[in-house]
């Protein structure tokens, strides 16, 4: 199902929880809504599902305005954050529940419960109660219950957040498989960037009720629309250099000049230059400035150098082969790969280059 969201908004009292969101989700896409706590993710999802009424804007399903259509008539399957399985019912009865409410004939109910259970691979547990399942298995039952009505839209609100790290990784892969097999348009809420980046076709990044950037994971990372997008995605966080840009040269507050970090001809009074750690090179053959190596951090397979550049501190991802402890305390020529350098307006956070 194709979903069009136009200028969607929801206000609680006087405070907007979601504001002016416009986006189109294509049939069969796997979309993540990503953003910090309180940014409006659940409110967005609940408006798509018809659980919360918008105070502005419209939602179209396959071209039909459903803004005022109640939840039970929208053909959506919902998985809530705390699965909310019925503890006294068996797995089979839990999955069957939405069909029983709709008075679907018994034989068909059986067949569809079996199909949904097989899809999420809980077939062997149909007679158990939720308490007799692991967290991951309970999660699958909740997904089966959402899928049993053959919804044209599957909505999931942080469904993996109660699982331990390893199980989360497994369930991500499972969820992708289930989504592809069921061919159902899916919107998945998470505040975990790795989850969003690994699972989604495209991600809606939200902040303070606004849609900041809606793109595939690669574009979100490589081409952030705002400083917020640049800082929210990436680990370690993107380095930030504040200062004035004159014809591509950046002057930091303490007077240190970083030559040609921005394109020639660019002048910005108050800029924040974002630099990803993997695009910083020490011992550069095209140095932009000199910087002091303060420490090396060995994180598994990677090494990060903590570097002081004037009044700024940078983290640089370096190759194990290039560095050793003797570098600590020395000055090195530092360079930047132009692809990983983004210039933002310090005031508005908007991307300039
Ligand atoms: N029923 C409500 N009444 C009043 N304010 C609400 C209500 N529901 C949500 N809000 C407010 O709207 C904003 C967005 O809430 P929402 O639940 O959509 O955030 P979220 O992104 O899902 O956060 P989290 O990651 O913590 O679940 C918050 O500031 C929240 O306090
Ligand atoms: Mg939420």
TrEMBL record:
Keywords per UniProt: ATP-binding, Cell membrane, Membrane, Nucleotide-binding, Translocase, Transport
Keyword Translocase carried by entry:
yes
- Top-rank taxon, per record: Bacteria
Domain called ABC transporter: residue spans: 3-233
Q: Which Pfam families match?
A: ABC_tran, TOBE_2
**What GO molecular function terms would the record report?**
ABC-type transporter activity; ATP binding; ATP hydrolysis activity
**Is Nucleotide-binding included in the keywords of this UniProt record?**
yes
Q: Which InterPro entries match?
A: AAA+_ATPase, ABC_transporter-like_ATP-bd, ABC_transporter-like_CS, ABC_transpr_MalK/UgpC-like, Mo/tungstate-bd_C_term_dom, NA-bd_OB-fold, P-loop_NTPase, Transp-assoc_OB_typ2
Q: Kindly list the GO CC terms recorded for this protein.
A: ATP-binding cassette (ABC) transporter complex, substrate-binding subunit-containing
Give the protein's recorded name: ABC transporter ATP-binding protein
Source organism per UniProt: Metallococcus carri
């Amino acid at each position: 199902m194709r979903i069009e969201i136009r200028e969607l908004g929801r206000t609680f009292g006087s405070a907007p929880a979601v504001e002016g969101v416009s986006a189109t989700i294509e049939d069969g896409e796997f979309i993540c809504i990503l953003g910090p706590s309180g940014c409006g993710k659940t409110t967005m999802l609940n408006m798509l599902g018809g659980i919360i009424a918008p105070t502005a804007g419209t939602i179209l399903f396959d071209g039909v305005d459903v803004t005022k259509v109640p939840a039970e008539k929208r053909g959506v399957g919902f998985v809530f954050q705390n699965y909310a399985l019925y503890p006294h019912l068996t797995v089979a009865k839990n999955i069957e529940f939405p069909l029983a409410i709709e008075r679907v004939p018994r034989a068909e109910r059986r067949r569809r419960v079996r199909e949904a259970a097989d899809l999420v691979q809980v077939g062997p547990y149909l007679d158990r109660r939720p308490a007799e399942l692991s967290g991951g298995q309970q999660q699958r039952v909740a997904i089966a219950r959402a899928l049993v009505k053959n919804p044209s839209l599957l909505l999931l609100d942080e469904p993996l957040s109660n699982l331990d790290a390893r199980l989360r990784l497994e369930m991500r892969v499972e969820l992708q498989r289930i989504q592809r097999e069921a061919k159902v348009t899916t919107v998945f809420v998470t505040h975990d960037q790795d989850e969003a980046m690994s699972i989604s076709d495209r991600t809606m990044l939200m902040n303070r009720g606004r849609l900041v950037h809606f793109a595939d994971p690669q574009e979100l990372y490589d081409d952030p629309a705002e400083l917020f997008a640049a800082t929210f995605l990436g680990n370690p966080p993107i380095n930030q250099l504040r200062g004035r840009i004159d014809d591509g040269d950046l002057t930091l507050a303490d007077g240190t000049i970083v030559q040609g970090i921005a394109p020639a001809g660019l002048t910005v009074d108050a800029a924040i230059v974002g630099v990803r750690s993997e695009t910083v090179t020490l011992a550069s053959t095209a140095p932009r400035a000199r910087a002091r190596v303060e420490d090396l951090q060995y994180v598994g397979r990677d090494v990060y150098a903590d570097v002081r550049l004037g009044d700024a501190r940078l983290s640089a991802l370096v190759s194990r082969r290039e560095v050793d402890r003797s570098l600590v305390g020395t000055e090195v020529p530092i360079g930047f790969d132009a692809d990983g350098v983004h210039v933002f307006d310090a005031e508005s956070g908007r991307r300039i280059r």
